Amino acid sequence: MAARGPGRVSVLLPTYNERDNLPLVVWLLARTFSDSGIDYEIIIIDDGSPDGTQEVAQQLEKIYGSDKILFLFPSGTAYIHGMKYATGNFIVIMDADLSHHVRLHFVKQKEGNFDIVSGTRYKGNGGVYGWDLKRKLISRGANFLTQVLLRPGASDLTGSFRLYRKEVLEKLMEKCVSKGYVFQMEMIVRARQLGFTIGEVPISFVDRVYGVSKLGGNEIVSFLKGLLTLFATT
């Protein structure tokens, strides 16, 4: 008897200046889901990209069909807006910069029937490729601080590649108040508080193929402020 699949999966794909990446990441996702026999939809939520990303997303919607590709203009937080339109019982959150892959998350979810499966760069054969020493030190340092101060029971809190049960994600969204890089960290911390189960999958994170990372000084300061706030309130 064949294993029961995850039902329908909704991928929330926030974009900003991803014109070159978007067609390829959509094609890779569509091929992965089709090969795995998983029913899916990809919800593209663009934050006003000036590079033509929106036009590319509209063309992809026409090519794949609106039952598979849905293009939205965000109203408020991209993930919250995207969830309003998601029809899947599982939701994948990821970037559109070609750094992530998705199949192993579903394998892990079925193994342990987890509420959340998070990609980790800091466990098993996970790793980061294409980063300079400065970015590696920032990422490692941020993760070390979160482990020491918050003790979350997960090895990678700052990654953005996760699979959620839809009802779990909805509950976490109600609790989380952070934005930016701190948001990903708070989601795991709140999940542990609420007793949700979390599985981890080692991932090889490859730096952006096109475009420029948005990580900068302001994001680092915001992260530190958010970390201290979570430490004081959890």
Automatic annotation (TrEMBL):
<dbReference type="GO" id="GO:0046872">
    <property type="term" value="F:metal ion binding"/>
</dbReference>
<comment type="function">
    <text>Transfers mannose from GDP-mannose to dolichol monophosphate to form dolichol phosphate mannose (Dol-P-Man) which is the mannosyl donor in pathways leading to N-glycosylation, glycosyl phosphatidylinositol membrane anchoring, and O-mannosylation of proteins; catalytic subunit of the dolichol-phosphate mannose (DPM) synthase complex.</text>
</comment>
<dbReference type="GO" id="GO:0006488">
    <property type="term" value="P:dolichol-linked oligosaccharide biosynthetic process"/>
</dbReference>
<keyword id="KW-0328">Glycosyltransferase</keyword>
<keyword id="KW-0479">Metal-binding</keyword>
<keyword id="KW-0808">Transferase</keyword>
<dbReference type="InterPro" id="IPR039528">
    <property type="entry name" value="DPM1-like"/>
</dbReference>
<keyword id="KW-0256">Endoplasmic reticulum</keyword>
<dbReference type="InterPro" id="IPR001173">
    <property type="entry name" value="Glyco_trans_2-like"/>
</dbReference>
<feature type="domain" description="Glycosyltransferase 2-like">
    <location>
        <begin position="10"/>
        <end position="172"/>
    </location>
</feature>
<dbReference type="InterPro" id="IPR029044">
    <property type="entry name" value="Nucleotide-diphossugar_trans"/>
</dbReference>
<comment type="subunit">
    <text>Component of the dolichol-phosphate mannose (DPM) synthase complex.</text>
</comment>
<dbReference type="GO" id="GO:0004582">
    <property type="term" value="F:dolichyl-phosphate beta-D-mannosyltransferase activity"/>
</dbReference>
<keyword id="KW-0460">Magnesium</keyword>
<comment type="pathway">
    <text>Protein modification; protein glycosylation.</text>
</comment>
<keyword id="KW-0464">Manganese</keyword>
<dbReference type="Pfam" id="PF00535">
    <property type="entry name" value="Glycos_transf_2"/>
</dbReference>
<dbReference type="GO" id="GO:0006506">
    <property type="term" value="P:GPI anchor biosynthetic process"/>
</dbReference>
<comment type="similarity">
    <text>Belongs to the glycosyltransferase 2 family.</text>
</comment>
<dbReference type="GO" id="GO:0035269">
    <property type="term" value="P:protein O-linked glycosylation via mannose"/>
</dbReference>
<dbReference type="GO" id="GO:0005789">
    <property type="term" value="C:endoplasmic reticulum membrane"/>
</dbReference>
<protein>
    <recommendedName>
        <fullName>Dolichol-phosphate mannosyltransferase subunit 1</fullName>
        <ecNumber>2.4.1.83</ecNumber>
    </recommendedName>
</protein>
